[in-house]
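INSTRUCTION: Work out how this chain folds

Fields: amino acid sequence; protein backbone structure tokens

Chain under study, with its fold:
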Amino acid sequence: MEIAILSLVVVFAAIYLIKHPLKERAGLSASTFTKITQGAFVMLGIIGLLSRSFLIVDANEVGHLKRIYLADNLPPGQIIALQGEKGPQSEIIGPGFHFRWLVRILYDIEYSSVIEIREGQYGLLLAKDGEPLKAEQFLAASWKPDDSKNMLNADYFLTEGKGQKGPQLEVLRPGKYRINQYLFSVEPKNALDVPTGHVAVIRSNVQTTDDCTSTVDVEGGTGANVATPIVPKGCIGVWDEPLPPGRYYLNEKAYVSTIIPTRLQTWSYKGGYTQRTIHLTVDNNGKIKQEEQQLEITVPKEAADKAIIVRVEGWTVPVEMRVVVQVHPKDAPIVVASIGDLQRVEDNIITPAIRDILRSIGGDPKRKVMDFVERRNEITAEVEQAIAIEGRKAGVTIQEVRMGEPAIPPELLVATLRQQLATQLRSTYKEEQEAQKERISVERERATADQQKILVAAEIAKKAASFRKDQLRLEGEGERLKLTEIARGQKEQADVLGKDRALQLQALTLALDAAVQNPAIVKVPTVMVSGQGSSLEGAAAILGASTLVNGISGSTAKSNNK
């Protein structure tokens, strides 16, 4: 602004000098000096005005103009100037060099960054000018699909497009936008991401289609008085078509989304009670002792609620349950329209229903406490059948119901436990006796195996002794037979030779045997033997003179004398 004023001063000074020439100076005539001075001031003035007649816009910027001088005032209620009016202009300046006569004098110029919508976000648009919203509107009407790009142009939006002021239904998707920020403000919002295993049920606050004369009524699966209004897509209300997994750029002011998981959900009811137990022990004398213990069972963080307390036969029995549920995609709008979300289904439908069902089962006069142990499968099936009906009313499918181990009062179990323990002790004693017998047998076999070498040797010795006994017996019998035969032979010999000669022959035989065994005892001198007779006489003659025969003869004579 200061440069513009200075330029005007220079121009006025040049005009003044033209009308009031100076005197001669520095050897120049007054007319020549005046012309030079006038030309200089004119050039300075022109340069000053030209410097206020262009602007440069960076590639990532948008130039905005606000008219200050030489234009009409804006009509009341209007924000953006049209057709040369004062105020924020509908026109924006793109990147590059732009020459406009006196643009920096007539306008105030502002530079704004290009609008950038990042991935995973969308831009919520608010128009500061345009036609007013209708009485039934809280969002501007939707733009025509083939007109969206033109509607971002301020001139078109305010004239041909007949855009409405206020929050817009349309949003800016990820990207960069060069728009008039005097007209539009942009607020970034996160896009709707529907994860795998989930669907998004949409409750629309706006109508974008003309076919909304009828609604879809979905009735509860049991025929109960649960009628849920569901509308076609594009109408106001809960859409009958949920959005599958993916990313969606939906105006959060127009469309309220509820994410419903379609995977199996497990709701557990456990903890929140005192568990009493009686422990039985056996001392060294075989006597059974009992001891009571108490344990506080807390509710896990992931549990839907605490265990269900059931009264049966006057006893209080905490029962733990597990319910597996699933919402099919086609039933997700029913959940949202009738209850709100899956958490409300759990809190307001399933939990109260399963408690009521179990308490009704326990309150049956025919029901026994031990039925929750002995007939647990039957009770579980009854609960599953009843809770499935309640689930279908809210669009939830009950896949499975399981009952945990009930906390039966220990007093009811002591008698049975003692009987079982006594039976087990009796069986244990018998098994121990059998084990002892088996151990003794094993030890005997092991000792026998350890002495096997000795036993084998003894067995062999026994067999050898028996064999030797038989051998000696046979040898004795043989010797007896031998002696008998010898005696018979000697007797017969004596009968033939006579007793004296038989005795001599026997002595001679013994002498010969001794001589064979000990030749040194035989000394035979030279003797002439002659005569007639038997061979025995010859032999006797030969040996008669020997020392051996003489010794035998002497011994025989002594024997006979005796």
Remarks:
- Confidence is low (pLDDT under 50) at residues 22-26, 220-226.
